[in-house]
Amino acid sequence: MSLDKILKPIKAGFALGLVTLAGLFSSCSVHDLRLNPKTDEYCVYKEGERFSYAKKIEEALKKAEKETNFGYKILTLEAELLPEKYKKHHKKAKTTLDEIIAESKKTIKVKANYSEDEAKKLLKSVGDIVDNKTKEHKARYYLTEGLAEGGLDCDTLVFTYLSVFDALGLSEKVSPVVTTGLDNICHVFLRYKLKSGKTFDWETTKKIKLPNGSVKSYKRAKEFEHSFRPLIYAIDVGGPICHEFFPSLTKKQLLAVHLETLGLAHFKDPYKLIEHCNASLRLFSNNSGAYQLRALAFCNLKLHEKAINDMNKAIKINEEFNLASVKKNGIKDLLGCHKYSLRADIHSKMGNYDKAEKDFAKAIELNPNHYQIYTGRGEHFYRLGKEKEALEDFNKAIKLNPKAANAYFERGSFLNKIDKFEESLKDLKKAKELGYSNFEILDYYIKDSEEEIE
After folding, report:
1. Are the CB atoms for 150 and 85 separated by under 8 Å?
2. Using CA atoms, how far apart are residues 218 and 203, in angstroms rounded to an integer?
3. d(CA 389, CA 419)
4. Are 371 and 401 in contact, with CB atoms under 8 Å apart?
5. pLDDT tens readout for residues 90-112
6. Higher pLDDT, 210 or 388
7. What share of the chain has pLDDT > 70, as a percent?
8. Tens-digit pLDDT profile for residues 316-351
9. Of 42-46, 68-72, 366-370, which one has max mean pLDDT?
10. Which residue has the higher pLDDT, 244 or 356?
11. How distant, in Å, are the alpha carbons of 73, 170, 274 from that of 117?
């Protein structure tokens, strides 16, 4: 591998300000991390003092706890912890939730018990009200943004339904349930518990888009359990609501998961991200996602050993969960491949190539059809100087998901590094067309490929 090829990704890093002397000195001398073995937290200290952002999270949680309605808890937490750019949405989001709840109270005649037919009509009425206020379902990490702009994803849709049923006094009877397919296509149901103890699931939307592009009803989808993960979680509200495949979450645990998600808004500040994960783990110690996200923060700080330790914990939690699930039902958590793939990537960056290849192999064993595993392994092969194998993996990633912007970016940046600039430019422009989010590094590689072609 030529020196120029080795230096190219480093130059990209400098161009983006990802690797600067100031950043390195800041990481080493201003901030430091101290492990609290009792809580498994890596507490951030700045110039010898506890990082003030940790206290801000604690104060935000206290404010949220004063709200009795779950939706308003989430909005309060987001108002305190989301970056400035989201503030424009807060007023509109609260107004929209107020209107959904007011319309629900006006429409629904609340009583102690409902027949199954009455319960289905109730759920449909609430579903229609929510759909009328949120016309489209699209990826929104935050309830504030989703309500303000009229687009909810599965989690924010769950928050909205929980809020409505809290307001109606029916949270003991109704629980949201979330399902997903192999490529993270999610779907929300409402599980109603009748007086007899019998439960039934009502679809909040009419159809599920399965990974092969076909559309199936919920009942039909159950026939595809080998390729369809039936449940991510059920919200445990009125007592333990168990599902035959996956466990339930309490509202407290769901709040903890959202604290972790809020950390994504501060992804470029690894110290804030670490504190979000710490707070999440205090509320929900078995939140494997918080360990995984904290590992990414450690990676950004080049603290790879700490990242591996957190990934080991995330995988251990996931495996313990899967052992029970597989033993009972003979199915696997197909999305657990992400954790092995991420740990493989960290091992590869550390030069632990044998461990990296074992983890990539495990990820592929769990889910051989997830394109992101192959983009990660493609980068690994490039580090080893195996350009042929790297290109094969990037090609496979795109074949598995031809609409994945990051797969085109990864192949395009790889082609740039091996001096195939015309092919690189084609992929990079495709990534931009598909909405690749890290436009700074994308534009760097586009500009570099264009200049090399000229």
Report:
1. no
2. 8
3. 17
4. yes
5. 999 999 999 999 999 999 999 98
6. 388
7. 77
8. 988 877 666 555 555 555 667 889 999 999 999 999
9. 68-72
10. 356
11. 32, 16, 48
Q: Is the pLDDT of residue 219 over 60?
A: no
Answer for the pair 103, 140: CB distance below 8 angstroms, yes or no. Answer: no
Tell me the pLDDT band of 129, cut-offs 50, 70 and 90. Answer: very high
Pairing assessment for the beta strands 174-181 and 186-193 based on DSSP bridges: antiparallel
Q: Which residue in the block uniquely carries the two structure tokens 């031809």?
A: 402
CA distance 384 to 197: 58
